[in-house]
Records
---
Amino acid sequence: MAVGRRFGALAGVAAAAVALAAAELVAVATGPRSAPLVAVGGVVVDTVPEPVKAFAIEVFGFYDKIALLVGTVLLLAAFAALVGVAAGRSLRAGYAGIALFGVVGVAAALTRPGATALSALPALVGAGAAGAALWLLLRDRVIAGTATDTGTDADADATAGKAAGQAVDGAGQAVGGAGQAVGGAEGRGRRTVLAMIGGAAVLGLGARVLSTRRDVSAVRAGVVLPAPASPAPPVPAGADLRLPRLAPYVTDNASFYLIDTALVVPQVDPRAWRLRVHGRVRRPLELTFADLLARPMVERHITLCCVSNEVGGDLIGNARWLGVPVRDLLDQAEPVDGADQVVSRSVDGWTCGTPTAVLRDGRDALLAVGMNGEPLPVAHGFPVRMVTPGLYGYVSACKWLVELELTTFAEFDAYWVRRGWAQQAAVKTQSRIDVPRRGAEVASGPTMVAGVAWAQHRGIIRVEVRVDGGEWQEATLAETVSVDTWRQWHWVWPATPGRHRLSVRATDGTRQTQTGMLSAPIPDGATGWDTIEVTVA
Ligand SMILES: Nc1nc2c(c(=O)[nH]1)N[C@H]1C(S)=C(S)[C@@H](COP(=O)(O)O)O[C@H]1N2
Ligand SMILES: [Mo]
């Protein structure tokens, strides 16, 4: 045994930190998504089984991506410590461990969508840097240790410390010195390693900030949106009750929910953007952003919601979208008979599949460039995304869109379909109680109960509320601009003292009433009535 286990582990962690920092520095040039942490994280996001992902979203919520990165770093640190311990015995074993990590990093970076040969560079440089760090930290100790026959870990540590005095600190410490001198050298060795870890962390984080700061916000700020040929109908005053805690009729961009698989928000420069419409079409098209903006624009309010939304959940929002009707582009490209699926592809490789028939049935499915009067926010898909009234986002609302490929449902399964979600998923009729909030205490007497209800593209014609499983009572519907958005509703409840359960259900434009049967979001959207408990004083 040559180097103390603790020191070896520490040296391994330091080498890993140096590797990540070096890789992040290279990724400033090769792009933030080629960094091994992001590439490996991306592979994890794409491959973890659905229940694990659902659990992560449940537990970490909105921070699931940060949790994933922190988890990956901790796991890496643990393995790096093991590699360091092995390296303390034989540097060659250490190099083998690093090579293994290098291979994983390179493989992940090269297999990410949009990868080029250059994407391998961060992991390669990182592995090289880790090897150098390990050599710097351990070479003399391993050699010294091999030359000294020591029995215990404590002895090994002492020997290592002695070597550190020579190698790392280079202070020319007397080798045959007293135990006191050896302990001091050991301390200095440790300090060197800790400094290395700290320095690498600062450098790595700095590089990350630098590479993600080179984003497209400045370009976005310069985008001038054309006026719509067909403007959105004005929102009637009666569409919004403006109650505290009640979701406003129009969701502002900053509060609009965000769901995607991207660990790093794609930065797509509209000047380089191209949309290809191809596959089973007679006339493939390619458009620039200017081409798209030159086409007649339509502006509509459309409510978008996520299939993962639980009953009562808030993965839903309503915005005023500006864009080109998808149907116009399809008409121009002329899909061949039987091409029943339009696959939208994002710049980061994510895909969704929408029925061709839905996109051509006259509804306002848009290739959107504007959201509530602004260019699309970067996180919501700048410069171009799709929105389709009536379908869940995962089958209809591709962000950072670069391709529309006409194909068939038999031929191709999109991203979430391969992971167990339904190929086709129309939004289910749903309703939610926003006021009073869950678990609230309210005063007895007339009490405002309010919320939202949605059944995009079918519309909402009735909302009912019941108390403690009693008779359903009809609520008052607020106005709306179309069947493609949610509607607010309210009902004045003669509240009596005690604990009470309030439930809501909606009926859509096809006269179907929302089912009370509980089902989970997977595979095609949750069902059940939103039910809250409140205490009346
Ligand atoms: N490129 C890309 N587009 C995507 C997704 C994604 O992961 N990647 N997620 C989809 C899902 S599941 C939903 S619900 C909507 C959410 O859109 P938002 O984040 O703008 O609210 O985007 C859709 N478009
Ligand atoms: Mo979603």
Note: Residues 232 and 277 are 27 Å apart (CA to CA).
---
Amino acid sequence: MKYYSLNKRSPVVDFRQATIQGQAPDKGLYFPESIPAIDPELIREIEGLAKEEIAYQVIKPYVGDTIPDADLRRIVAETVNFEIPLVRVNDFIWSLELFHGPTLAFKDIGARFMSRCLGYFARERKERVVVLVATSGDTGGAVAHGFYDVPGVDVVILYPSGKVSSVQEKQLTTLGRNIHALEVNGSFDDCQQLVKQAFADPSLTSELFLTSANSINVARWLPQQFYYFFAWQQWAEKDNPPVISVPSGNFGNICAGLLAHRSGLPVRHFIAACNANDAVTEYLESGQYQPRKAVPTLSNAMDVGNPSNFVRVLQLFHHEFGELKKVMSSYSISDDETKKTISDVYVKYRYLPDPHGAVGYLALARYLQQWPGGRGIFLETAHPVKFYDVVEPVIGEPVAIPPSVKAILDLPKKSTRIEPEYDTLKKQLRQVFL
Ligand SMILES: *Cc1c(COP(=O)(O)O)cnc(C)c1O
């Protein structure tokens, strides 16, 4: 498989180069030259297959021969080695729980896959890779855990001191080994600025093989198809495919689902469930796409005003508005509706969604009202405990802390404090890695 840049001003590359580079030199997103068709037998016989076999078959055409089969099978097995259950909420709605990984959010799947691919490519080059990321909270944890103990790769995470939650900070700072946390006396923007300066500094990049763990990387995007197949595997009514509602921010997750559907996975319809950041919802109504500044909401991982993966969605439909509308609808859900949904679903069905899942649930329920007989799935993208500050006041009781979180809350934090100055970062990197 070859990948081209959606800006069309860079050479085509293979999976290996696309993964190492992340973004094309012309700043475009990489996109596969063709969409592989899934073997119909995989769809028919899916109930009898192991998760890792399904994942291997889905990803193999995209990886081609850049990773030998034995390594690829190991990588996908490690990527999906936790539960991804489809849980019934009521007669019409099921929740696909994507939060049973180490950092309790669906980003674990993309991060685990990408880290292992990069680890493989680094070993092949016999060069140490340094992944440099700035985080406002969630991404850093998924990346840190994804890369933990992956040979040949070190991770440096910059996070703003005092501006991440205590659980998030522990997820970043308690691993040690190849994970290095830098606690920056500044804001998230300062962290991001420092990372950008490092990538733009030839005197540093000539000494260190630096790369990013950005969410637009194809090695994070493509494995997100896996769990749409796992949903189908657990879906009882094979003659009535599900409507699937995806809480969406940067649109990487739903774009992976649309890709899986294009390859042959049965899905009745997709719902892009958005919060007040509704550029795509508006687009589907008016045909006009107007990116905006993000506004803060309770489902903060979806506070994106100009979703970077939306160009991939458009490309999948060859920029034909009518074709996209046949397959995908979108709803924008307010914070008040989000809170009410968390409470309603908990009281009526004894199921506790997190704020992102609640947006997905309500958007799905709205759509199903118009199409009687339809049944659907919302993706539950995070564990409610990650957003206990929102959820607890709504339901009036504490959210049980899972054992994996309890264990890290007691571990000592290991981080290095730095001032938000590029020279300090550079000195730190050279001291640790050279
Ligand atoms: C990142 C994130 C989202 C949004 O996913 P996209 O792929 O950016 O659309 C939704 N929910 C949670 C909990 C997230 O962390």
Note: The chain has 20 helices and 13 strands.
